[in-house]
């Protein structure tokens, strides 16, 4: 199957950005690990990061035409603001898992609201880079059992 990993704004700074919250792994580390794990199970995985809301919306729309079967998305700051990115995911109707490195529920109150969680197959948060690996495991299980 074909998996797409989407990273929102400021995640390009992982490794140096507030490491006490987000850890020391870089985005390249995380993407390489996910790609290797997916390949080992016979799946294709592509990653995309942008700081721009329109670029994220465009990439989600493109996923409808490139046969993406499943999306892992860390909307980052857009989690709490972006009706447009939510609408794009609803429009393409590709199943997705919402991922966060930190646990937004244990932070500032404004992080408790997500425009994505109610549409998501599931949400994984609070485990640092492992959140992505756990989400990938869930996605692969879902793709295999088709439920
Ligand atoms: C984040 C949590 C968001 O609240 C924050 O804006 C981010 C990263 C996370 O992965 O923990 O940029 O999505």
TrEMBL record:
It comes from Luteimonas galliterrae. Homododecamer. It is an enzyme of class 4 (lyase). The chain crosses the membrane at residues 119-140. It catalyses: 3-dehydroquinate = 3-dehydroshikimate + H2O. The gene is aroQ. Pathway: Metabolic intermediate biosynthesis; chorismate biosynthesis; chorismate from D-erythrose 4-phosphate and phosphoenolpyruvate: step 3/7. Its EC number is 4.2.1.10. Belongs to the type-II 3-dehydroquinase family. PROSITE patterns: DEHYDROQUINASE_II. Catalyzes a trans-dehydration via an enolate intermediate. NCBIfam families: aroQ, PRK05395.1-1, PRK05395.1-2, PRK05395.1-3, PRK05395.1-4. InterPro entries: DHquinase_II, DHquinase_II_CS, DHquinase_II_sf. This is 3-dehydroquinate dehydratase. Substrate binds at residues 74, 80, 87, 101-102, 111. The record marks 17 as: Transition state stabilizer. Keywords: Amino-acid biosynthesis, Aromatic amino acid biosynthesis, Lyase, Membrane, Transmembrane, Transmembrane helix.
